Amino acid sequence: MQSKRRIRRIVIVAIGLFVLLACGWLLNTGRQLLDPRGQSFIQWWTGDDDVKQSLITAQREACPGAPFVLPADGFVGLLYNDPRGPYSGLNPHQGIDIFSSQPVGVTPVYAAYDGYVRREAHWTSALIQRVPQDPLTGEQIWLYYAHMADEQGNDFIEPAFERGVSEVFVEQGTLLGYVGNYDGNIPSRIGAHLHFSLVKDDNGAYMNELDFDNTLDLTPYLGMEVNYDSADGRRVTCVP
Q: DSSP H helical segments within the chain, as ranges?
């Protein structure tokens, strides 16, 4: 009898936790959908070509007073510190996602700044760029570019950056490859986009980009408001 009661209590607690989590998810989702930043994302996925075009940022030159250029044209949909799915408040987005309205392999990706490009031998769709001197702080930093391949792992990276290459110097604006939708052999969930982030240095090596604390807000580097906490949900442009 006691074991049955114990099992019943466990089941009740489990159901209670599930309900609380479900309610929290629904409230968070509702809040995000009402937020202008969430509404622009809905417009991107449901709008026609004219609507999508109105959300695209095409900025081939650095914004006034900013050192970086936006590495690809597109809709800057997921922002830095973004809690929206597939991320969360506990695990926010470490960079920005620039979505393309074109098929994979078409939208160019350019170096955001001068630096030395590396591609690890096991990397299918990504490059990382060492910048010896952060133009804002003087410290070494790293720029990470990802998803430059299709779902099957056929990469769109320029031949100069073959697997295993290291310390290839490029100037700002150099073509690195093209936007793809590779997601680690998992069917793409959010379409063709470039993930771009700024990664801290650890004694000459880049830190783990998957850890949010190892990245920096790109806002002052791009001269664009790309932090979820302060962006207003409209098309990203140079800060006046």
A: 2-34, 36-46, 49-55, 219-222
The pLDDT score that the predictor gives to residue 28 is 53
CB-based contacts of 209-212 (< 8 A; 24+ apart in sequence)? 209/94, 209/95, 209/144, 210/94, 211/94, 212/81, 212/91, 212/92, 212/93, 212/94
Q: Token digits for 128?
A: 């990382």
In a domain, 150, yes or no: yes
pLDDT band at 24 (very low <50, low <70, confident <90, very high): very low
Task: Calculate the alpha carbon distances from 14 to 9, 19, 22, 182 in Å.
Answer: 8, 9, 12, 36
As for how many domains the chain has, the answer is: 2
pLDDT of residue 73: 97
Residues 181, 187, 190: CA angle, nearest 5 degrees: 50
237, part of any domain: no
Reported confidence tier of residue 23, pLDDT bands at 50, 70, 90: very low
Regarding whether 196 and 80 lie in a shared domain, the answer is yes
Q: What is the CATH number of the domain that holds 93?
A: 2.70.70.10
Domain that holds residue 192: 49-222
pTM of the model: 0.86
16 and 58 share a domain? no
pLDDT at residue number 107 = 98
